[in-house]
Amino acid sequence: MKKDYWISEKPLDVQQVVDKVTRREAGAINTFIGTVREFTHGKRTLYLEYEAYKPMAEKKLAEIGQEIKQKWPDSKTAIVHRVGRLDITDVAVIIAVSTPHRADSYEASRYAIERIKEIVPIWKKEHWENGEKWIGDQKEKNAGVPSKEAMK
Hints:
By secondary structure, the chain is an alpha+beta fold. It has one domain (about 5-145): Molybdopterin biosynthesis MoaE subunit (Aldehyde Oxidoreductase, domain 3, Alpha-Beta Complex). About 30% of the residues lie in helices and about 35% in strands. The strands form two sheets. Strands 3, 4, 6, 8 and 9 form a five-stranded antiparallel β-sheet that branches. A four-stranded mixed β-sheet has the order 1-5-7-2, sandwiched between helices.
């Protein structure tokens, strides 16, 4: 994979993402690995389905990378998000950030996941024992992320 920011239909490889940010001047590499959890708001999740408007999602992931570069100039970031059906414990997102010092890599990584939830057009459908529901944006507030219907 030549991109640093991408959407994948296949299972994600943590080492592939870490390799993209590994460099001699970095003393810290922070990885965030988001997985599918079994319980959300007291409901038992069976599995999730993620969909994305891939061209825009990859553009927005790269935009987040640029924001991180502006806030932490010595950083390097790579982000991948999976789409399709994901079962419990499957990896949904990987963020890797390298910086000369650890505090910056932690802060930048947290910044990245919050921004993904705010601006990247990725939708998830939660499947429970007693029903299912499309979640508009990943913060469940539709803050800045167009609805799935608006993208058609």
